[in-house]
Amino acid sequence: MDAAKLNNQIDAFLEMIGVERGAARNTLDAYRRDLIDFDCFIAPRQASLMAVEPKDIAAFAEDLNNRGLSPTTVARRRAALRQFFQFAVSQGWCSDDPTRLWDGPKRGRALPKTVDASDIDALLAAADRLAGWKAVRARCLIELVYGCGLRVSELVGLPIRTVGRLDVAALRVKGKGGKERLVPLGSHARDALRLWLDQRPKSLPDGPVRADAQKFLFPAKGKAGHLGRREFGRLLDGLAADAGLDPKKLSPHVLRHAFATHLVEGGADLRSVQVMLGHADIATTQIYTHVADARLTELVERAHPLAQRTRKNS
Known about the structure:
Blueprint: H1 3-19, H2 25-42, H3 54-66, H4 71-91, H5 117-128, H6 132-148, H7 152-156, E1 170-174, E2 180-184, H8 187-199, H9 210-213, H10 229-242, H11 252-265, H12 270-277, H13 282-285, H14 287-303, H15 305-313
Antiparallel strand pairs: 1-2
Helix pairs in contact: 1-2, 2-4, 5-6, 5-10, 6-8, 6-11, 11-14, 14-15
């Protein structure tokens, strides 16, 4: 298929799901890669992408499985193709949806990883051992991602205007699809913010990037003007190692999961947790009830006298 024509069709499709469905930038980028991957697979078999048949889709599904891709990745590629061909039919580019017979992968939903409150304390202690303003910034980052349940992209890109007042009780966060929500700030997070705002001017880079960096709560000298997701990930790895924790079991997303899990364990209602996390569907939030149940079961089996008696008798 002509590359320019294909790119135009993909652009039109991505524009539609971005505008009408509020798809996030990361989703749009992933869908583009998925569609190009399918076009590369189908090129030796078909002259035109719009002449694809269900048997071609079945061959692609088998190829994905043979590559050893995770069920989550396969499910995303299936979603990208199904939505693309449904859009293609609506635009008159093809007469039939060849993905209609592609069943979703059978997969159980894995429980999200989480950490104990003691692990958070260890991370904060490690942050305090850093030098100068970097220690204050590290504590503030952890307090916000764990204390507010922010996504890492939301955290590192927070505009400075979000915390224009030192007595702010909540953050206005722009999440997936540009949707805004208010996230309450606990006392520890507010204290960490106050300390960071005092130290923040020391972190501002010199040179032409300074003007852009001044717009963000966590400025940096990179092109974006703010701390990057990977940079925060590396910082967290270093803190975990210093705290005696396994860096492979920690990530910004794990701290977000810990925020939600600990709230549910503490008795928070799911609807409130859903709002704070920015989940569009409460079914996404319900996974944390299973995490809490699993942790409670582990606690009972480890600490209950009957469980201890069973281990002694075995």
